[in-house]
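Subject: Protein record for review, amino acid sequence with backbone structure tokens
Concerning: The relation between a protein's sequence and the shape of its backbone.
How to read it: Take the token row as a discrete description of the fold.
Enclosed: The protein record, placed directly beneath this head.
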Amino acid sequence: MIGSSARSEIDGLIDSMHRIGIGNTPFTEVDAGIYAKLEWRNRFGSIKDRPAFFMIYSMKESGDLDGKTIIEASSGNTGLAVSGIAKMLGIQSIIVLPENASEVAKRSIRENGSRIIETPADMGTEGSINRLKEMVSQGDCVWINQHSNLRNSDSHYYTTAREMEESGGIPSAIVAGIGTGGTITGIARYFKEIDPEIRVIGVQPAAGSHIHGLRNAFSSKYRGIIDRYGDLIDEVLYVREEDAVSELKRYYERTGQLIGISSGANLFASRMLHERYRKIFTVFPDSGEKYRSELPL
């Protein structure tokens, strides 16, 4: 339980978030017994809008950003969210990302006025974080630190999960990809308070696969959220990139909606688990439009 003062602070944060078009995304049945939040409907196009707003707004309100430039490492979606929200709040921002990140995302980040620093593709997001830490140690930047900032997980506890319950009730299982761990742990915290028997299944890329936004967080040295809340994840399903892409193609052919690759991974995992769980809640973190040139449609 949180006190009335903290509750009022959270409610104010959520109201501010809603006023700029983040949250309250559609929650719909995307396959028999499988329900997904369509997170590309957020203002800057992905589920990362929620934690980016929670983290930046909280830091701004506390005075931590006065005269500072914020910096974050991102494979794309967080960079888009951070750059867009920073622009709205009048804050300078730097995004450090792998050179193989989506060109569409890079262009949008630059259009938001953010400086981009690219790191070698083969080093992934970990390489971007290493470069970021060098810059923070040398200059006047504030690292948002999405992998360890608990406001990341809080954003999904207080908004995503609550919206799911309001629209769909209680699931028998939750399936969500693991990147920073914010989405899956925030949703898990909320629903396991209601019923500890609800199963939480994480989705990670299989060995040798690259799925935008997902990683093996348990083996990363940047995993503060996972260290804090990772025990809420009951099991992990490993999905091959080709299965995630095949799933998004199947969904596109059936609905005309192009979901992102991590969304395809979540849907693939949910369908594999549906015989075990009658009602599954998942998320579609973004659409596939920014990846269209990479997809064999």
Notes: The chain has a mean pLDDT of 94. Residues 5 and 11 are 10 Å apart (CA to CA). The beta strands are 27-31, 34-38, 69-73, 92-98, 115-119, 141-143, 173-177, 199-205, 235-239, 280-284. Residues 4-42+150-294 form a domain with the Rossmann fold fold (CATH 3.40.50.1100).
